[in-house]
Amino acid sequence: MKSRIAVYPGSFDPIHDGHLDIIQRCVPMFDEVVVAVLQNEGKSPLFSVGERLEMIRAVLAEFPSCRVESFSGLLVDFMDRVGARVVVRGLRAVSDFETEFQMALMNRRLNPRVETVFMVPREDLAYLSSRLLKEVGSLGGDIRGLVPETVFVRLRERLVKRER
Ligand code: PNS
Questions:
Q1: Angle at 44 between CA 69 and CA 33, to 5 degrees
Q2: How does pLDDT run across 51-86, given as a tens digit for each residue?
Q3: Ligand 1 atom at minimum distance from 87 CA
Q4: Where are the alpha helices (DSSP H) in 87-138?
Q5: 45-64: buried (b, 16+ CB within 10 Å) or exposed (e) per residue?
Q6: Residue 50's Cα: distance from chain center in Å?
Q7: Residue 76 Cα, ligand 1 centroid: separation in angstroms?
Q8: What are the boundaries of each domain within the chain?
Q9: Residue 159 in contact with residue 24, Cβ under 8 Å?
Q10: 85 is catalytic
Q11: What number does CATH give the domain 5-163?
Q12: What is the pTM of this model?
């Protein structure tokens, strides 16, 4: 039987508990879950791709069916390279829907074998985004418990350094 491989793509700058919740929900549904980190250094991310890969790998170490890789170029081309046909995206609110709908249809047009599966995060995590966490963290707000502890420590260090 062919293995069912899902790709969960994103910027993950940094990974937070909402992402983790989606990944954990994917684990029993697929033989392998490839977390695909977009190489978007041009957008001045807070963490380099290498740092993001390292943090995600550490957090997912307990899930042997999860693999973490970076990619550049089209997502559908990356999917072909890893032999995956399913893209997983989290849908937090109606506001996510329009962009996600457009991306799903464009990806399908680019590669008709690719299907997008939308997953809904735990309700108490549904408001999280990496952008909001960075903003609140940089203004001194408490974001502990919304990101894995290792990420919290790295995030605090990085935000303090950026302030200097
Ligand atoms: O975490 P994000 O920023 O919402 O993730 C967006 C991502 C990485 C899924 C999207 O930007 C993407 O797939 N980029 C790769 C380039 C690509 O394939 N673009 C066309 C998408 S229809």
A1: 20
A2: 999 999 999 999 999 999 999 999 999 999 999 999
A3: 9
A4: 94-110, 130-138
A5: bbbebeebbebbeebbeeee
A6: 14
A7: 10
A8: 5-163
A9: no
A10: no
A11: 3.40.50.620
A12: 0.96
